[in-house]
Give the backbone structure.
Amino acid sequence: MRIDLSSIEGYVTNHLKLFFLSVAGLLLLVGIIAVSVFFIAVRGAEQTMVPDVRGKELTQALLELQVKELYPRLLLRYSQNSADKGLILEQEPAPGSITKAGSRIKLVVSQGVIINKVENFIGRNINDVRMDLQILYTSSGGFPLLSLKDPLMYDFSHEAPGTILAQKPEPGTDISGPISLELVISRGQENQSVNIPRFTGLDYLKALELIGSTGVNFEFNIRETGANEKGGVIVTQNPPASTVAPLNTVVALTMTAPEQLAEGEFFGLFQYKIPQNPYPLAVRLEAVLPVGERIQLLTVQYSGGNFTVPYKLPVGAVLVLSMLNRELYRETVAGYAW
């Protein structure tokens, strides 16, 4: 029997081609399926919905974000309620937003209240307490945990003016939310008197120094220099020197205008109406010269009224009035203004 080798070779070759084609097709199909599954998986992970974690404990919020393949960015902030400590106050993006997996979600976490009890303010100065409460307000993220109830109450006492005599709520009271603090402030002793010093004959700069050291209430008036009179000097005062008068008595001082002024220099009377206070407060008048130098004209404990201070300054200088280191008013020297 004769075997046809060419037929066998053709048969084998055809089956091998078919086999390799089948394997190649199968591999191609598997590759297409794998790529499709990959892109479907990636596409599904690209976008996710942001859960609502507000009001939840931090650990619970982190677990919910982890399920969504989202990552937290934590910010700490004091709040008004001590019960909020450890809870999520805010989140960004908002709940329900669609974002990519792997995105960061900003979470604002409460640290509770910055303080948890009312401290003892009795015996402290009201101005210092105001400053402390302002710092507390800023540190707590803008929430006024403690605020002063207006108007403040004042009473006469042997304590220095401005000293806190009583408070409500009592020291040690728990803070669970915003509290309005009621204070009773000392206005000093009742019926205090002062021995009026002698101003007559003093240069007005010396008179300002004396006012600063004695703290007497005052008001300046200016008139033209008369014959045989010296300019820039106190010529009359009322009440007269050595008078024993009530503490807030206003001493009216009349002075003569300076006789000579340098070129570009002006003499004037600074005037500003300061509201009446229950007790004298630290008031300061300064001048900022055109060259930038800052000089002090007067510092005095002043209870309020028509605040008048004579000055001799170059044009363009700026007068700055402050009370308790807080600026009240400023004006520019522009002319001969008394």
Notes: The first helix runs from residue 5 to 46. The helical segments are 5-46, 58-67, 126-139, 204-214. The domain at 193-332 is CATH 3.30.10.20 (Trypsin Inhibitor V; Chain A). The CA atoms of residues 86 and 264 lie 65 Å apart.
